[in-house]
Amino acid sequence: MDNEQKYRILLFGEFADKAIEEEFLADSLSGSTRITSYSALVFGSILGLFLINSYCTERGTDLFLKTAPMRLVFIAISVLVFLIAKKVTSHKHLVYTITFYQAMMAVTYLVTLKQYESLDYFSILGLMVITLAIYLLPNKVVFTQIITIIFSILFFISPIRKLEGLQTHEFYRIIAYQAILLVHCNINYCWAETTKRKTFVAKRELAYLSSKDPVTGVYNRKKFDDAMDEWISLSKRYGNPLSLILLDIDDFKAVNDNYGHIVGDSVLKNIAATVSRSIRDTDIFARWGGDEFVILLPNTDIRQAETLAERIRECIASNPLDHPRDITCSFGVAAYEENDTKQSLLRRVDDLLLKAKASGKDRVVG
Questions:
Q1: What is the pLDDT of residues 91-100, one digit of tens each?
Q2: Does this model's pTM top 0.90?
């Protein structure tokens, strides 16, 4: 139920949660910029073909001299949008670019039709084709709706009056056809946006599940390995301290052997919950395997790491868990040193954990 509310999608195909919507838009930005840039190139090329045709059939006439500059301006704008969209780094700027381009598509067509003394039914086809083209661009649906509605109203106020032999019933029929097209475009657009967001949610949930240990709910080893590679790289580059804690549940095999794996899983979950309450949001906590857990502590030196390990040890030892025996843990603590690799750091902290176990367990060795 929480996830349903969290990922609720509104009527126009956007997440109700603004933070998740921003995350979705950032994730889909590269695809949106690609669609915008190449669509602008295609639209500009199509108008270029119309310009060539007009040159071949109308050059030297006043009509050509009036319409050619407007078409050339739109072609230049299309090239500019093609170049700008490829470099856009925020969705907000992309929306500005697309909205401007959609408006120019409508304005160019309306101003071009204004230069003709009379029109034929191809101008109606042009209205519908440009409406479809506007909806192909990945803009916010509200902006697209505003532009297409204004475009349609202006078309029916002025250019269509130049249509030869237009009857009143035909005029209203064309309005009805355009209204049907707008309804279809809106439904299809909102459905497509909703589908994209559902796919995004599914991928997000899959990524989340693939990074979690199924028993304890903390990160798994793969996620930890990736995070450790990243933080070691940052420590090498900037010299920030980095520490590692490896902990092992004392005599955990005896718990499984004597009380069964259900009790053993309960112990693992309680240990994971206790540790999770003791660390920062920036710390990386994972199940290393079996009864071992590992904590990566960015921007933490060895003394701070040992203090944290001791505090966690005391919390576990003093926690009155509903288990048939007392549960304690042993800890190895190590800090990243110059020229350390992931393997050398893990090997060192593992050796320290073995020393803690050999020294009597339920202790921290750093």
A1: 999 999 999 9
A2: no
